[in-house]
Design a protein that fits this description.
By secondary structure, this protein is an all-beta fold. The chain is 0% helix and 63% strand. It is built from no helices and eight strands. It has an eight-stranded antiparallel β-barrel with strand order 1-2-3-4-5-6-7-8. Strand 5 and strand 6 form a beta hairpin. The two termini are 19 Å apart.
Length: 105
């Protein structure tokens, strides 16, 4: 199972998180840039993970992410991270962003 929460990394479409529940529900929350401000938007859907790809389906679109494991630099030094890179191009721009979780051991 993937982690419960993953977050975008340097995403120009807005800062976003995916909350993945054990029951297969996904909640996408992101700060949509609007008139020099940010508006919090939420979308609910489903997810499926086969150990290598995370597939997210929201009511209006879907995206698949490829999982890789890397080391990322943190304030404590290098730490293991799970990186979820989008596979296809989505009209919903925030789903074209890379999501990740960095483990601080």
């Amino acid at each position: 199972m993937p982690p419960s929460f993953i977050r975008t990394e340097h995403c120009s479409a807005g800062d976003a998180t995916l909350n993945l529940t054990p029951q297969g529900q996904v909640v996408l929350e992101y700060e949509k840039p609007t008139n020099n401000n940010f508006e919090l938007e939420q979308h609910i859907g489903t997810w499926f993970f086969d150990g290598e790809q995370l597939k997210v389906r929201l009511n209006h679109t879907q995206q698949a992410f490829q999982l890789t494991h890397e080391q990322r630099e943190t304030w404590r030094g290098p730490s293991p991270a799970e990186i979820y890179t989008p596979i296809q191009n989505s009209d919903f721009k925030v789903l074209n962003c890379t999501f990740l979780l960095i483990y601080l051991e």
